[in-house]
Amino acid sequence: MHEMGICDGILKSALEAAEAEGATRINHIDVTFGELTQIVEDALQFAFEVQRADTIAAEATLGITILEGRSRCMDCSAEFKHDRYEVKCPECGSYLCSLIQGRELRIDSIDVD
Amino acid sequence: MKIDISKGILAHNDALAEENRQLFKESGTFVVDLMASPGAGKTSTILATIAALRDRYRIAVIEGDIASRVDAEKISRHGIPAVQINTGGACHLESAMIRRAAGALDLDEIDLLIIENVGNLVCPTDFDLGEHAKVMILSVPEGDDKPLKYPGIFAISEAVILNKCDTMSVFDFNRESFDEVVKGLNPTAPIFPISATKGDGVDAWCDWLTARIEAMRAAE
Q1: Which domains does chain B have, with CATH numbers?
Q2: Which residues from chain B sit within 8 angstroms of residue A21, using beta carbons?
Q3: Position A99 pLDDT exceeds 70
Q4: Do A38 and B2 touch (CB under 8 A)?
Q5: Stretch A40-55: mean pLDDT, rounded?
Q6: Which of A18, B13, B102, B220 could join A23 in a cystine, given CB atoms 3.0 to 4.6 angstroms apart?
């Protein structure tokens, strides 16, 4: 249940950015995370609902985009998508692959008044 | 009004981790983050590692637990500096905690700093502490299916220690299937079968660790 810590990071960045723009209310926050991180979407939404209270984001919604895992084969250079369980090149069968997407933990933007 | 932010959610943790990395670089301290379930034998593996390497390197330990000083006291009894972090409920260590703990140690006098993370196979994986290597321990009684259930930690570990290997037959642990799944998740990570309390296999793990420490020193 480290989503509390993740959510704390989201709110800190959002509140800082809103304050810098002199905003009085945050309506929406967009975040992106990769399928290969340890984030559970429901747990993150729950943490957000608890932690947004008593801030200018108290009424805000959280939009979550999830990126699939993608890797590049270091033997044959093929690019392919994969789940979190096995990173194996579908073209040549090699396990030597370098991850190009799937471990993101990013706050993208906020909508404010 | 829309405001673009585009930065890492853990930017605060990652920035502090980078500062930690710089501190460790200045003192020439190699730092390894050991992750495992509760009861997998993290402390026993650390004690076996200390016994094998204490003549070669000056070692210190940072112990992460939700509560108690039990582990730090166990390490201190062997004459090794140990700092206990109590997370008070948090399920993983973060870079700020490591910074505070490192402040209680004389880093210039330490060649190898071992961090024992909180017992957990999920949460520690997403947090950079500023370490040089993340290594995980799985113990045989936990079962050979664990890489399927907790793929994240196997995927990001640079080496996998398989502890309590002396109980392999009792627990019907399928080593072949375990190795196959780990290879699929992380083809470059070596697997070190050990029995920490009996000392079996500890040499191969310590040889790997020594090679990593020497590679860091050679690069500086």
Answers
A1: 30-219 (3.40.50.300)
A2: 1, 3
A3: yes
A4: no
A5: 94
A6: A18
Does the structural domain A3-69+102-112 have CATH classification 3.50.50.100?
no
Residues B1, A111: C-beta atoms closer than 8 Å: yes
The position carrying tokens 């582990």 is: B71
pLDDT digits (tens, 9 = 90+) for B62-121: 999 888 888 889 999 999 999 999 887 778 899 999 999 999 999 999 999 999 999 898
Backbone dihedral angles phi then psi of residue A53, each to the nearest 5 degrees? -55, 145
> Which residues are registered as beta bridge partners of A71?
A80, A99
Chain B residue numbers with beta carbons less than 8 Å from the beta carbon of A6 are 9-10, 126
A26 neighbors A18 (Cβ within 8 angstroms): yes
Please check whether residue B32 is in contact with residue B133, taking contact to mean a CB–CB distance below 8 angstroms.
yes
d(CA A51, CA A7): 8
Question: Tokens standing for A112?
Answer: 């404010």
Query: What pTM does this model have?
Result: 0.86
